[in-house]
Amino acid sequence: MVASIFSNHERGGKILLGVIALGLVVVPFCNLVVSPESTFHISTFTVTLLGKYLCYALLALALDLVWGYVGILSLGHGAFFALGGYAMGMYLMRQIGSRGVYGDPVLPDFMVFLNWDQLPWYWYGFDHFWFAALMVLLVPGFLAFVFGWLAFRSRVSGVYFAIITQALTYALMLAFFRNEMGFGGNNGLTDFKDLLGANLQSDATRVTLFSVSALALAAGYFLCRYIVTSRLGLVLVAIRDAEDRTRFLGYRVNYYKLWIFTLSAIMAGVAGALYVPQVGIINPNEFQPLNSIELVVWVAVGGRGTLYGAALGAGIVNYAKSTFTTLLPEVWLFVLGGLFVLVTVALPKGLAGIAGRIKSFQHG
Amino acid sequence: MGDSTHTRLSPSWDDPKIVVESTHGWVLYLNEVTVSFDGFRALNELSLTIDAGELRCIIGPNGAGKTTMMDVITGKTRPDSGTVFYGDNIDLLKHSEAEIASFGIGRKFQKPTVFINQTVAENLELAGAKNKRVWPMLIKHRDSEELDRIDDTLRTIGLSQQANRLAGVLSHGQKQWLEIGMLLMQDPQLLLVDEPVAGMTHQEIEATTEFLANLAGKRTVVVVEHDMEFVRSIANKVTVLHEGMVLAEGRMEEVQENSKVIEVYLGE
User: Fold this and answer.
1) What's the pTM value of the predicted model, to 2 decimals?
2) Which residues of B touch A261 (CB under 8 A)?
3) DSSP character for B166?
4) Which residues of A fall within a CB distance of 8 Å from B96?
């Protein structure tokens, strides 16, 4: 039985990596090479949509690492995603230069609109890509580290931890809505022109962003997989299943939780940073508590504690969302809610669990 | 289980291991420890001394404070007042559970707690890892010495056949053994064992008795147990707890004669 779970797990991972590899070959080819008249052409709109799914999948992977393996239910992971997105958005804003509506050589449009006469200090450095890229990692990482340090040290766990993470993302949303914060208020950051000199509207840039997202997802998967199959992974599952017991064996559980939570937040930040140039906007709605809850649904539907399940779940649920919100927009929230209830009651291991069950049935 | 392996059960440690400094001869020293939960005094100025190499049984009716005492020693519960020393120098009240475990104090729970989603071998590996900090756990692989220790322990606890099965599917008795195996892997100097024979068959109880008796002298063992027959069979010295205090202490025969003890516990 153990062996079958393990080999199944492996197979799921292979499927995920296969899907990514296939996408890396087919999508650029069908967009850039195949002529637009052909039925095999993939439109740039679809490329961007798929790129978005890949970012969501990376975010789901990050959540699965903390929730699926360590049992820390974070209902605020969307905040780390949004912070990574804002760091990238600030870089993209600086790249606009004097091409804004107001044509100010230094200030982004929204600052001119607010009659600000100089750039706030925390915008310094964001005209360099390397600086922004560093912030994509550091800002969510630092927030998670401080937040986690306080929470885990005080032994806040379970539903209480989930609630304060909701509060965290909600508080950030309210803060970012304020104009005087200097992040564009409720309009957020948008109207981006180019990234590292490449025009964001061009097909080639979109395909490149898609490919980088795919590679980031694969890298994230390998990293998580390395962690959960190492001896550290044994400790993580031990913490999830019997936290006190793990402490009495001599493991400093708080540190383990803190490192994994921080790493997961950094992964979420990277996902957000790749997401923003593809969708072309980042605004405080990304901090909505609902987003973080939807994220939990993706992971639950795909299969918690499997990594590949979380990533595939993100893709599947979001594909369903795109379809439903186009065909029957008013039905989507009911479908989402129903899906969550169904998975919780009938499929505690999600879609990955069904695959496992079919396999163990075949083996008798 | 009833494997013949249990009859030759003895831990692989042959030499007495005294790591902790103890000039007075005791390993564990509790002085006037008080713990109250919402006004209820689970421990009421409890004072207790455990000597190095001793096998001590702690008995007492439900609610006497036995498990709370274990919780205080292992850092799970902080007392309202009192002192708890491990050896001469280590003030256990200043340390976390993990630190206390790393000093060489191992604990076996009342309800067998093993990691149910991990294999028997993985449970032992977790218990026996040499460096339990984050980074070494991430990058280091199990070495052959650790694998040997796991194999030895599997044989000692009679679970070699079950090495690759999930701990969750073991029988109750096997889980008890696995937990004892985890204690062996931890190689502690002081073992706190909470109701080791609860739910065990006669055969298993015999094997456990022999196992604990073998430990005496090499390690210090504190056993909390309800099963009087078991206590009679292993203990030199017995401490009777009642309402968070020591009611009586001494050899089993003496304690059995004690009128107060008969009144609250043995005579029931």
Assistant:
1) 0.89
2) none
3) B
4) 247, 252
